[in-house]
Write a structure and sequence with these properties.
The structure holds two protein chains of two kinds. In chain A, about 30% of the residues lie in helices and about 20% in strands. By secondary structure, chain A is of the alpha/beta class. In chain B, strand 6, helix 7 and strand 7 form a beta-alpha-beta unit. Chains A and B meet through helix 8 of A and helix 5 and helix 6 of B.
Chain lengths: ~220, ~300
């Protein structure tokens, strides 16, 4: 899921001030931001209190089912049309994808209330770790299911770097070096690395990504 | 052709030193270091934004060393941290065009430990991959498989870490670099001669040349700094205590380095001295260890 963290309040306030907003509608997200505890109902209500304490009026609020879902978000916007009408701006507590979907769904100024930080694995309730960068050129087959692109702070494919010491990472010194971990897991499985991994194909991750499963045969649909 | 390579290939013992390009454009201090070290060394490493801190480019500074004459060649350092594969290849072509013949390929320290901690570490290639790319440029082919209008002829080096555990992984990594095209290694500072010896023993069949690192531990403060801040190196207690207890730490450090050089000379193909600014000590260390100076 997409992990988000609260955005610096001063930046939010400055954004609202820039458009002269006095009344704000707050939109949360029922998926990732709810699990991340940054954009669910409790956080939306906390944002409401902060806004009001800072002299803003809150025209209304909602926690949409999935903020990044264009159809659903349009429905949510229609459902709250009356309250939105009274608002000068919308503050969205979701990842950047959700903010853009809301911005596409309404003609008012829309501002991010969170920072999107990474694609997170849920280790346990409330504990998230970044394990995948969605690079489009997976090496997990060669690395015992441990991604060096993401979990080595330098993203080296062939490590360890010269900073590894006693099996620990140069940068995150309390953690085992990813390359040591890969080596150990491969050995446990009776496998070894066969030669160095080739440089990554960064063209595999073309921006912006787009998939259209609805395109008809032969029209070049599918991931790119 | 690189005389540094020829000397090593002939089986002669080499001495390399290290100079740091300035933080700015005034390289008079570096030139002074070169003036002192060049007569004593076969080659001088020219560091590349060492410690992820901003310095004049290794390319320009290596050219300064080359032009300073005296028979001492620069070893142009390239880190993977600051440039993508286009820029790395472009700089390597430039280096060869300028007459630089020796290159040391390293990963590079993480930017978060340097003076521009907000910068984007590139690491488009890792050091093994960049060694392979450099070998390919030597064959007249770029990374894309296209033929170059004039290739390079670098003597290619890599970094080696005989004391970092797990040792087996270090050896696997070293063999990977050799397979990619590394012909010589320079090591992190050696503090444990036995670990160095078993590393040399393990890599001997490959024919790679191994130059052992020796660091001048000028003062207890330097030892503390290394242990607290430098990645990939730990000064053990018995050495740290020796420097800490000494009445004249610099003299003790010179004595220690001299002993290390004398021992390492029995095993290694050369030594790489890192005097940390105390350039005047290098001649004394070499003389004390009975190492002839090549360009004096």
């Amino acid at each position: 899921m997409i992990i988000t963290k609260p955005r610096d309040w001063n930046r939010i306030r400055a954004n609202l001030a820039e458009v002269g907003a006095r009344s704000v509608f707050i939109m949360g997200c029922g998926q990732c931001a709810t699990t991340s505890k940054t954009g669910g109902e409790p956080e939306v209500l906390a944002a409401k209190a902060t806004l009001e304490a800072d002299g803003f009026a809150v025209a209304g609020w909602a926690v949409g089912e999935v903020a990044c879902h264009l159809g659903g978000t349009r429905l949510d916007m229609r459902k709250h049309a009356g309250l939105l009408e009274a608002a000068d701006a919308v503050l969205v507590l979701s990842c950047g994808a959700g903010v853009q979907t809301v911005a596409e769904s309404i003609a008012k100024p829309v501002f991010p209330g969170l920072e999107s930080v990474f694609l997170g694995n849920v280790i346990r309730h409330g504990v998230f770790e970044e394990r995948c960068q969605m690079c489009g050129d997976c090496v997990l087959d060669k690395t015992a299911g441990i991604c060096p692109v993401t979990t080595c702070p330098k993203g080296l494919l062939n490590g360890p770097c010269g900073g590894m010491w006693d099996g620990k990472c140069e940068v995150l010194t309390d953690r085992e070096c990813t390359h040591v971990k890969i080596h150990r897991r491969l050995a446990e499985q009776g496998r070894t690395r066969s030669g160095a991994l080739a440089p990554k194909d960064y063209s595999a991750k073309l921006k912006p990504g787009s998939v259209n499963l609805r395109e008809t045969k032969g029209s070049g649909g599918g991931p790119r | 052709m690189s005389r540094f390579r020829d000397t090593l290939v002939r089986g002669e013992f080499v001495v390399t030193g290290e100079v740091a390009p300035p933080h700015g454009t005034d390289y008079s201090a570096m030139r002074e270091s070169v003036r002192k070290l060049a007569p004593l060394c076969h080659a001088l490493n020219v560091t590349d934004n060492q410690g992820a801190t901003l310095h004049l480019s290794s390319l320009a500074a290596s050219k300064v060393v080359l032009d300073s004459g005296g028979g001492c060649e620069p070893i142009f350092q390239q880190t993977c941290r600051d440039r993508n594969r286009l820029a790395l290849q472009s700089d390597l072509l430039a280096a060869w065009t300028l007459g630089l013949e020796n290159v040391l390929v390293v990963t590079g320290d993480d930017p978060r430990g340097g003076d521009h901690p907000k910068c984007k570490g590139v690491f488009d290639l890792d050091s093994t991959q960049l060694i392979e790319v450099t070998a390919s440029l030597n064959a007249g082919i770029d990374m894309n498989g296209s033929k170059l209008d004039g290739g390079t002829g670098f003597y290619i080096g890599g970094a080696l870490f005989p004391e970092a555990e797990p040792w087996e992984i270090q050896m696997e990594r070293a063999l990977g670099k050799i397979e990619a095209g590394a012909e010589f290694f320079q090591t992190q500072a050696i503090t444990d001669i036995d670990k160095f010896a078993r590393t040399v023993e393990a890599l001997r069949p490959t024919g790679v040349k191994i130059i052992a690192g020796v660091l001048l531990l000028k003062s207890p403060r330097v030892v503390r700094f290394i242990n607290e801040n430098l990645a990939g190196l730990m000064i053990p207690d018995h050495i740290a205590d020796r420097i800490a207890r000494a009445e004249k730490p610099l003299e003790e450090a010179i004595a220690l380095a001299t002993e290390q050089v004398r021992e390492l000379a029995q095993i290694a193909d050369g030594i790489h001295i890192m005097p940390l600014g105390a350039d005047d000590a290098v001649g004394r260390i070499l003389e004390g260890a009975g190492i002839p100076t090549p360009n004096a």
